[in-house]
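Our consortium's second objective concerns turning raw sequence data into structural hypotheses that experimental partners can test. To show how far this objective has progressed, the report includes one record in full. It was chosen at random from the queue rather than selected for favorable results. The single chain below, 388 residues long, was entered without modification.
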Amino acid sequence: MLRTSLIAVASCVTCLGSPAVAESEGNEADDYLPGLRSHFDRVASHEDIVGFAAAVIEAGEPVFVYTHGETAAGSGREVSETTLFRAASVSKTFTGTLFALLEAEGQLDLSAPIPSEVMDLRGERSPTIEEVLSHRTGLPPNAYDNMLEAGREVGFIRDRLSRVDLICPVGECYTYQNIAFSSVEVLAEDVTGQSYDELLTSELFDRIGMETASLGTRGLTLGEDWAAPHRGWRRSTNRPGDPDSYYDRTPSAAGVNLSLNDMIAWAQAQLGTREGLPEEVRARAHERLTPTRRETRRLGELRERVSATWYGLGWRVYDWGERTLVMHSGYLSGYGAQIVLEPETGFAFVALWNSDNRPAWSLWPAVMDLRTGQGDGDRWLRRFLEDD
């Protein structure tokens, strides 16, 4: 029997009712944490789940840490807090934060245009660095991702963007990108003299103390404790797949690998309870820069909770009632990742998994309902869990 572990972190067992939590959260942690395990267990035991790791943070400290399942189906290797997963588009949160840091250090100006030799679009002007990082290029959504997935080189694809008709003027609408987003890698390398991989490692992973974080397939598989992908939304068997991805060529958009411990550290750095990121950098990265009405429409029933959505520097921003959530999700075939922050109260939910499945995506609104008292969380889970 593989383990399912739920760890109430020792340093925080007594802090659940502490003045800090009571003062910032109205004692919500006392109310909802005891009931979390059943929700996590129901998701983790679903037939589409292979390996799963998640944590809940309150007042800046982890109060629930949960791991379940295998790094590769049939291997007997248990998922742990140090197992590496692909973070997919959660990588964009690192890129946005890195550029906020470079701006704070005076190394570049995010209002500067992207040079035409880096990326030349058809608009009347070039997008600024900020507009690229907040998806305001005017390009059609996910422009030429299909060419990347077909194996074409990023430089070739980026040159082809000059032939694409824009769907709105630069700066005037939200269209999510990967190829265009990755153009900022060239700028970071030019101003620092380091490769993008080296820069991300030295300026964020090392600075924050993310001990197992890495980039690309090689970084993922370098050690023994990594999770293999399990692909297919209607799998009849769980067969581990190859973790190699063409998105290794766009590390700023989708190349980061993280363990649960790394995700916790990243969340704490963004909340300001771990050293490494000045407040001005965090505030800059979390700004509401681009209204994302398409994203709001896609939320379906969740629009009863989320009234508006935005995009900042590599981060999404959701208005959950009067609360502000800063978040991002990530998906690569066979992997999923989620990070949700409420900076004002020091809350975070983080999760990683190594299979195509739907139940895991429903956990974050379930946790939010529980902690805010708006519901028991079942509403968001029952759509995908057969026992309901």
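The partners drew two points from this record. The two ends are 25 Å apart (CA to CA). The first strand starts at residue 4 and ends at 7. Both points have been shared with the crystallography group to help prioritize constructs.
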